[in-house]
Amino acid sequence: MGIAQAQNIGCDAAKKFGAQFLIYFDQDSVVSKQFVQPLKNAFLSLSKLHKVALVAPIFKDEKHGFFYPLIFLNKYGLRRKVVPTGNEVQPIPISIAISSGTFTSVAVMDAVGGMRSDFFIDYVDIEWCLRAGRTGYSLFAIPGVCMLHSIGDRSIPFLKWRLVIHSEWRRYYRIRNGFFMLRLTHVPKILALREVLINVVHQVILLLTQRNKALQLKYFLRGVRDGFGPIDRV
Q: Of 149, 165, 183, which residue sits at a domain end?
């Protein structure tokens, strides 16, 4: 079972208990007791002015202390990155958010639909956010709420960046789902092409720098092959 199906099961269970709101966490998420209420307050306040899909915290890297950039897409799918300073006050419009720590409602999930279980893990949250945006919803980051987060199993320095290292099977889903995104009408083609190209370059760097080259190549080729295979329609 992937993260998408697990989230859908959790959402269905919450509805059976009569829940109105939902908040998603990873299995290793750690937050304070004061984390949820400011997100709920922001969601309710912003919903008076906008059609809100979700509100999200800002994320700070657990190991290296930097803030993850917030992403906003224009109508062509070109990205504008805003790196929080930690001093912002007003909600910041965004186009995509990682699922951990995001606050939404059951009504929004019913309107937009659940997570794509066929994606299993990578791009599950990004695809949903883009689907919500295409449906007319807005997304916001709430600067007053910060969450520590870590992406990948580890990272290595590469030129001026830190390259995230995932397991081989995670690389498979990232490669495959990047090609899947190219075929979804609500995903801007420029964004999807960018993800495919970055994934390929990332994989080449891994093949050059990591020891398990045969396994890296195996899952990369399998991801490319399956990325051109059947995909369910939303």
A: 149
pTM, two decimals, is 0.91
Domain membership of residue 234 (yes or no) is: no
- For residues 66 and 12, give the distance between their C-alpha atoms in angstroms, rounded to a whole number: 35
- CA–CA gap between residue 160 and residue 173 (Å, rounded): 26
pLDDT value at residue 234: 40
CB 153 within 8 A of CB 205: no
145: number of Cβ within 10 Å: 22
Looking at the structure of the chain, the number of domains it has is 2
CA distance 103 to 223: 31
d(CA 126, CA 39): 20
pLDDT digits over 29-74, tens only?
Answer: 888 889 999 999 999 999 999 999 999 999 988 777 889 999 999 9
Question: Is residue 204 included in any domain, yes or no?
Answer: yes
Q: Angle at the Cα of 132 (from 127 to 136), degrees rounded to 5?
A: 145
Give the domain range for residue 174. 154-227
Residue 30 lies in a domain: yes
Compute the distance between CA of residue 54 and CA of residue 216 in angstroms, rounded to an integer: 35
For residue 67, is it within any domain?
Answer: yes
Shared domain for 107 and 159, answered yes or no, is no
Q: For the chain, how big is the Rg over CA atoms in Å?
A: 18
* Claim to verify: residue 35 and residue 141 sit in the same structural domain: yes
- pLDDT tens-digit series, residues 86-128: 888 899 999 999 999 999 999 999 999 999 999 999 999 999 9
DSSP 8-state symbol, 71: E
